[in-house]
Amino acid sequence: MPIGQLLVEGLAIGACYGLFATAVVIIYKTSEVVNFAQGEMAMFSSFVAFHILSAYQYPFWLAFVITMLFSILLGILIEFLFLRPAKHPSILGMIVITLGAEMFLMGLASWKWGAEQKFFSLPLNPSVTYEPIKGMIINNWAIAVFAVTACIMLFLYIFFKFTKLGVAMRATQQNKHAAKIMGIRTERVFSFAWGFSSLIGAVAGMFFASRATLDPAFMMEPFLRAFAAAVLGGLMSIPGVIIGGALMGLIENFFGYFWPHWKPIIAFIVIILVLCLRPSGLFTKHYVKKV
Amino acid sequence: MFINKEDAMIFKKKWVVLWIAVWAVLCLAPVAPAATPAGFDDNEIRIGQWGPQTGPAAPWGSVARGSKLLFDIVNEEGGIHGRKIKYFIRDDMYNPAQTVGVVKELVERQGVFAFVGGVGSATGMAVKDYLAANKIIWVGPSAADQDFIQPLNPYLFAVYPLYRDEANVLTKYIVENLKMKKIGILYQNDAYGKDGLEGAKERLATYKMSLVAEIPVEPTEKDFASQVLRLKNSGAEAVLMYVGVPTSVIVVKTAANVGFKPQWVAANTCSDYPLMFKISGGLWEGVITGSFGELPDSKNPLMVKYREAAKRLSPQERWGVFYYAGILFADPLVEALKKVGRNLSTDAVVKALNAFKDYQTIGPKITWTDKQHQGTDSVTIQKCGPNGSSIQLQDWTTNDMATWKK
After folding, report:
1. How far apart are CA B295 and CA B320, in angstroms?
2. What is the CATH number of the domain that holds B225?
3. Domain containing residue B396
4. What is the least distance, in Å, from the CA of B218 to any CA of chain A?
5. Are residues B227 and B78 part of one domain?
6. pTM of the prediction?
7. H-helix or E-strand spanning residue A245
8. I need a labelling partner for B168 at 20 to 30 A (CA). Which of A5, A33, B214, B319 fits?
9. What pLDDT, on a 0 to 100 scale, did the predictor assign at position B34?
């Protein structure tokens, strides 16, 4: 059994799930909305990167920067156009609005780029591999995923701990009304959270697209897995979702190796078991409101 | 306002008379259901096809547009015995519920005489019985499903070779021509994939061999690292793939990432080489597939004719294998309509189709009888060359173990 290889592959795809789950959690932490359009926002940004690369032949770094700016704008626009106009919506209402946004983005991408699969590549040669330890082959894609995820995690730690905006986001999440009274412009915080989440989602989306193919439906499955990883780790904890993603990738790969029939569902079975024992996930405290 | 009582009375009387007249017309009019149009008249024959023009399966929507090219050519040449073909394409988004809706609309409102093509097993199964009940001819479903042909449906004529037959022929090629003994398979966990698995097993049993790895996958999965590692660890020299287009591309990419380089052999569903080459970043080169049509650049006179017509009539379309598959699936119906002559009827066309023997245009030889409506068990074997070009490895090959013939 190629244990080392399964470990590398499991952790790499797990890091990707974790990264994408972070995008889900950033919105959930500030507004308590599960954004079901997250996958399609990432898909749309990946298509923009593809379009810049294929139609304008720009170098990758420039396409990446433009795509990041676009993804921030997309997140802010969706919050501004879809969620903000809703008058006192319930959580369920907000979720339905994000589902609408999801369908809108998918339709728009199908119309603009068609449903045929596209090739999307990072500037990495997929066939170049390294074998630091015998039996443990690591490729450029996995190295890039590990490096980018580590950088984003470090940035998020510093951002939430030491910056005014990060503290404002945490304050808004804990008590929106108190934050308003303290002079925090909560609507701007929401816009920022959506833009920031969209940016991280776009990075993860490009990793998924380069591993698979690019089409308007390509983020549906990764979104479900990332959402499951977020639930597993705890929807309020960013380190938790990264560990949740890694666990998800490892469980899937080790089970998938021995029992391929079970691969698509095993992670969800584990999650159900975990949630039965710890309803808030592995890394979030479970608060019970007392009346 | 009325000037006097008399005017008011006259007005009332007029209304009463009008009401009586309307009721009389409604009650006395012959009570008959809206008659289903006959499917043809002196000037036209109405033919329909469903297919995904939008949604995730839209790349296969070119089948329906390929059939349109054939009908446009027929009409340009004067039609069939004085009748032009009126062709209807409906987008079902690869969704069986929508297929039912669009097919009913075409049958009951537009009054189509026959259907051709129709992408998808599930979509076809959703309307198969409805079409048979309405005695609507359906030629060349764009899917290979044993349930289309068994039990015999008198109005359904299949052109597409069964995946089971194709897998059998491909396995024979791997063992006898490539001299490979260790064969693994990656199959989609549904009727399509399982048919491929059965075909491979059937052929290997004749060599007293078995598969070194049988790995099912779900079509929605996006990560196949563990499955690829299992194939690698099995020592497979050749890997058969009965999976969808995105899955096969992800698998080949993942294999390159973990240093696994077997001979990939895939189903005809992945035989659109220019597309496969492009979306795999060139990794599709060297992959062998089955095919139910001629090579895209074939010198076959009919292929040359259709290729030239496509440039003229549909310059926006890419001359891909699924586009001209639409011609191949619709062609037998045109031939049958020509044979029947001016005295057109469903029974006459069915009779003409049942008499097809070794009929060949740009696909395999088709033979139908009144007891057997699976037209062929033949495929060609091709290989993806540089830049998505096609290389013919083996001409039309029949499956000598085809179970449906027995």
Report:
1. 10
2. 3.40.50.2300
3. 163-291+383-405
4. 7
5. no
6. 0.84
7. helix A238-258
8. B319
9. 47
Query: Could you tell me which residues are beta bridge partners of residue B214?
Result: B185
Q: How many domains does chain B have?
A: 2
Which of B62, B194, B223, B285 is the mutation pick for testing A, counting most A CBs within 10 A?
Answer: B223
- Note whether B55 contacts A9, CB cutoff 8 Å: no
Sheet with B288-291: list strands edge to edge. B213-217, B183-188, B238-242, B263-266, B288-291, B378-384, B390-398
Q: Could you give the 3-state DSSP secondary structure of residue A70?
A: helix
pLDDT tens per residue, range A173-213: 778 788 888 888 888 888 999 999 999 999 999 999 998 88
pLDDT at B11 over 70: no
Residue of A nearest to B53 (CA): A115
Q: What is the enclosing helix (H) or strand (E) of B89?
A: strand B84-91
Nearest in space to A214 (alpha carbons), one of B339, B200, B231, B249: B249
Q: Is B103 helix (H, G, I), strand (E, B) or coil?
A: helix
- Same domain (yes/no): B151, B252: no
- The separation between CA B156 and the C-alpha centre of its own chain, rounded to angstroms, equals 12
CATH number at residue A257: 1.10.3470
> Do B364 and B235 sit in the same domain of this protein?
no
Whole-number Å distance between alpha carbons of B11 and B3:
12
pLDDT at A142 over 80: yes
Report yes or no: B143 and B119 within 8 Å, Cβ to Cβ. yes
Q: What is the DSSP letter of B178?
A: S
Strand order of the sheet with strand B84-91? Answer: B84-91, B44-51, B114-116, B137-139, B156-157
Q: Are residues B217 and B357 in the same domain?
A: no
Q: Which range, of A148-157, A207-216, B27-36, B166-175, averages the lowest pLDDT?
A: B27-36
Contacts of A135 (CB under 8 A, 6+ apart): A2, A3, A4, A5
Q: Tell me the two tokens of residue B326.
A: 């639409």
Determine the pLDDT at residue A115.
77
Look at residue A285 and tell me whether its pLDDT is greater than 90: no
CA dihedral A173, A174, A179, A181 (to 10 degrees): 140
Which of B225, B279, B281 is the closest to A253 by Cβ?
A: B225
B227 close contact with A: CB closer than 8 A: yes
Q: What is the pLDDT of residues B274-284, one digit of tens each?
A: 999 999 999 99
**pLDDT for position B1:** 46
Q: Let me know if residue A288 belongs to a domain.
A: no
Residue B173 lies in a domain: yes
Whether A263 sits inside 8 A of B221 (CB atoms) is yes
Shared domain check, B183 and B154: no
Q: What pLDDT sits at residue A149?
A: 94
Q: Are B391 and B286 in the same domain?
A: yes
> Is residue B32's pLDDT more than 60?
no
Residue % of chain B over a pLDDT of 70? 91
Structural domain harbouring A61 = 3-277
CB contacts, 8 Å: B279 with chain A: 117-119, 213
**Are B198 and B229 in the same domain?**
yes
Report how far Cα B61 is from the mean position of its chain's Cα atoms: 10
Residue B95 lies in a domain: yes
Has the ipTM of the complex gone over 0.95?
A: no
Q: How many domains does chain A have?
A: 1
Q: What is the pLDDT of residues A93-112, one digit of tens each?
A: 888 899 999 999 998 998 89
Number of residues that make up chain B: 406
Q: Tens digit of pLDDT for each residue in B230-266?
A: 999 999 999 999 998 889 999 999 998 888 999 999 9
Q: Do both B146 and B84 map to the same domain? A: yes
Compute the residue count for chain A: 291
Which of A53-57, A108-112, B8-12, B179-183 has the weakest average pLDDT?
B8-12
Task: Identify the burial level of B390 via C-beta atoms within 10 angstroms of its C-beta, where 0-12 means exposed, 13-18 middle and 19 or more buried.
Answer: buried
